[in-house]
Design brief:
By secondary structure, the protein is mainly alpha-helical. It is built from 13 helices and two strands. The chain has a two-stranded antiparallel sheet with strand order 1-2. Strand 1 (275-278) and strand 2 form a beta hairpin. Helix 3 packs across helix 4 (70-88). The longest helix is centred in the last third of the chain and has 41 residues, at 228-268. The protein is elongated and about 120 Å long.
């Protein structure tokens, strides 16, 4: 059984195994180069984007969260690299145009799809979540069987089939909203062999050699196997990826801060809901936060009933507990004299 993408990435990152990286490049390179050609329509630009994509992989191999979905990750990086090159490169540089159709004998549907709809399909495929994009890339672009794709993604075959069907449905709906009424299967069939493009052995070996030098910290020597534009493109793409991660983290922190502030304001705002208290019998009842203080504007006790507030203010109102207690009688007598002096 061939080694999985996870195993190959671990061998490359932990043992600096160039053979493992070359296997990854051979396995995913045709998909990467095919996408570069569809988006750029220029042979040299496509090869620069191809190399830049694998330079980004070499620098980020140890931080990929889901190595089993490496094909989907590479597709996203390739799309970002090609879009960056397409917007930054001068149009005069795109001189060696690729053929507009896969072969001279291609049928009219294939010609239209390749010329007009290929980049559109890639754009909508790139927008899909990894959960659906991975199965589509493995099965519809790389031509793997459902069993092989499920094994590569580390999921049951039934889950792979449902994700594949759902991904095709979403993709077909998005394309229909943009005026493309063909079925997804027909669209991928029309692209045909241009979904994959074989890199020349020289390009593969040059890329592997440059990655080995970069991994050893020899950035200047890496130009022996890579063009300066490919190295610059990789650096720019990695900076943009890092900036995107920082923006996401900042947005999450801002959302948490706003939520905490709103919760604090809601907790301390005046007139908040009454606080539930435990009543006799274990039930809950609401008790207002601000109760009137007895004797401070509160209603007096009904007639004929003791008034504890008034009793506290005038101890003489309290009944004599023990008429035989001389100390209590002396205390009450002293209070009477004290009041007489105050009134006088």
């Amino acid at each position: 059984m061939p080694a999985s993408d996870r195993d190959l990435l671990q061998r490359f990152t932990r043992q600096n195994d160039e053979g493992a990286f070359e296997t990854l490049l051979t396995r995913h390179g045709p998909m990467v180069l095919g996408l570069c050609r569809r988006l750029l329509h220029d042979r040299h630009a496509a090869e620069d984007a191809y190399q830049a994509t694998f330079f980004v992989l070499a620098r980020n191999a140890a931080t990929i969260r889901r190595p089993e979905a490496l094909g989907s990750w590479l597709y996203g990086v390739t799309f970002r690299v090609a879009r960056r090159l397409r917007t930054s490169a001068p149009r005069e540089r795109l001189v060696e145009r690729l053929p507009d159709v896969p072969t001279a004998a291609a049928d009219p549907v294939s010609q239209v799809v390749w010329r007009e709809l290929g980049p559109l399909i890639d754009e909508e495929l790139h927008r899909l979540p990894d959960k659906y994009r991975g199965p589509l890339i493995l099965c519809d672009l790389q031509g793997q069987s459902n069993a092989d794709a499920a094994r590569a993604l580390g999921c049951p075959a039934s889950s792979l089939s449902s994700r594949l069907a759902r991904g095709r449905e979403i993709l077909r709906g998005r394309l229909a909203s943009r005026g493309v009424a063909l079925s997804t299967g027909l669209l991928f069939d029309a692209i045909g062999e241009q979904a994959l493009a074989s890199a020349s052995p020289a390009l593969v070996q040059a890329t592997v050699h440059a990655v080995a030098l970069l991994n050893a910290g020899q950035s200047a020597a890496a130009e022996e196997g890579a063009t300066p534009s490919a190295l610059a493109l990789a650096e720019g793409t990695m900076r943009s990826m890092l900036l995107a991660k920082v923006k996401v983290a900042a947005a999450i922190l801002l959302a948490i801060g706003l939520f905490g502030t709103a919760a604090a304001l809601a907790w301390h705002r005046p007139g908040a809901d009454p606080v539930p208290i435990i009543a006799e019998g274990g039930g809950k009842q609401d008790k207002p936060r601000d109760e009137p203080v007895p004797g401070d504007g509160a209603d007096p006790a009904p007639a004929g009933q003791p008034d504890p507030v008034a009793d506290l203010r005038d101890p003489l109102r309290l009944p004599v507990r023990d008429p035989q207690n001389k100390e209590e009688l002396a205390f009450r007598k002293a209070l009477v004299q004290r009041q007489s002096l105050d009134l006088g």
